[in-house]
Amino acid sequence: MTTATPPTVDGADRRPPSTGHAAAAPSPVAAAAGWLVQNPLLVLLVVMVAGVQLATGAQLGWGNLRGVFLDAAVIAIVAAPVAMLVIAGYIDLSVGSTLALGGVVAGKVAQSGGSPLVAVGAALLAGAAVGVVNAVLATVFGLSSFIVTLGMLTAVRGVAQLVSPLPLSNFGEAFGFLGIGNIAGIPLPALLAVAVLLTAGVFLTRTPAGRHVYAIGVNREAAYLSGVDVRRIPFLLFVTSGAAAGLAGAITVARLNSAPAGQLGGGFELAVITAVLLGGIALTGGEGSMVDVLVGVLFMGLLRNGLTLLGVTTFWQNVASGLALVAAIAIAAATHSVRGKMQTREARRLDDAAPTG
Question: Is residue 52 part of a domain?
Fold first, then answer.
């Protein structure tokens, strides 16, 4: 994947002045190698899909892809704000339990006769409330976001079970449209996921606040000295992450027509983090893009789907998902190392090509 370069805080161009001499273009082999280094997961994705399609003849059928998109959409909706948090140097591990809370809240409202919009609004508010708690503890009090959200992972699950001790079901056809409905033949959750990813992409690349997200992740102290509000932006990202998880909960409950608080969203946070890391979003912060997130989400969705089509049991699918998380970290580390070496080699090449005297 192509990793976005963090823009400067003030938007000024920091490129070195041109020497007036065009450097020699890299060879086709070097260019291809550079592309492979920048897009390792995309290459693996194409190879994996081609292999499964040849073996089963079923993965690229629209009926199968529709199911993949439905599953991937819920992950993508949450992965986008979580990725922005990671770019800023934070993390949110509570999204699985927040999904459960948003789902049971939406289910309660829908079951009591509330309109789908009211149910979704309630889920968004419940998720945002969790995000506010995470934000206060992590940005105002300065506690580790890993520890804070790990604790909230358990606490919010308990709250969801208090809200609905028994599983809810039968929410009505209108609410069900949120999870299984189509617009122009495209699943509604997939359209919502595309909207979320596009909005997040525009925010990161086209707004000052988006550039500040990168700046905070690169160097929080330098960003603060440059006038960036290093608390407010992460605060809003935590709230957005919680609200997105609440929305994902409403979609999941609408699709399943059931809301078991104890099981809903179990392991969801790992799926989100794996997709984010597979996409090349660095845990150290400061780099990544929504295109990376999309590729990571699709890879996870198509991997599980491909294993299912090949007849692999759920237990081995869980093993594969766990290994994918380890592989994501390994790929990110290897890509970062190789990219650094290539950049050093390119800088030397440009120095050698520059005229002397």
Answer: no
Structure tokens at 112: 């009591």
Residue 187 backbone dihedrals phi, psi, to 5 degrees: -55, 135
3-state helix, strand and coil shares in percent for the chain, rounded to the nearest 5? 70, 0, 25
Q: What is the rounded distance in angstroms from the CA atom of residue 87 to the CA atom of residue 225?
A: 19
pLDDT at 31: 59
Average predicted confidence (pLDDT) for the chain: 86
Contact between 296 and 276 under an 8 Å Cβ cutoff? The reply is yes
Round to whole Å and give the CA distance between 339 and 346. Answer: 10
Q: Please report, for the domain that includes residue 223, its CATH number.
A: 1.10.3470
Range(s) of the domain holding residue 302: 61-342
Residue corresponding to tokens 């192509």: 2
One DSSP character per residue, 109-156 reads: HHHTT--HHHHHHHHHHHHHHHHHHHHIIIIIS---HHHHHHHHHHHH
pLDDT surpasses 60 at 14: no
Distance CA 300, CA 279 (A): 10
Q: Is residue 329 part of a domain?
A: yes
Residue 15 to residue 260: CA distance in whole angstroms = 54
**pLDDT single digits (tens) 99-136:** 999 999 999 999 998 999 999 999 999 999 999 999 99
CA 328, 333, 338, 344 torsion-angle sign:
positive
* 183 three-state secondary structure: strand
pLDDT of 213-256, one tens digit each? 999 999 999 999 999 999 999 999 999 999 999 999 999 999 99
Distances (CA, A) of 144 to 85, 131, 134, 139, 267: 13, 15, 10, 9, 21
Q: What does the DSSP 8-state code read for residue 282?
A: -
Q: Count up the domains in the chain and report the number.
A: 1
108 φ/ψ angles, rounded to the nearest 5 degrees = -60, -45
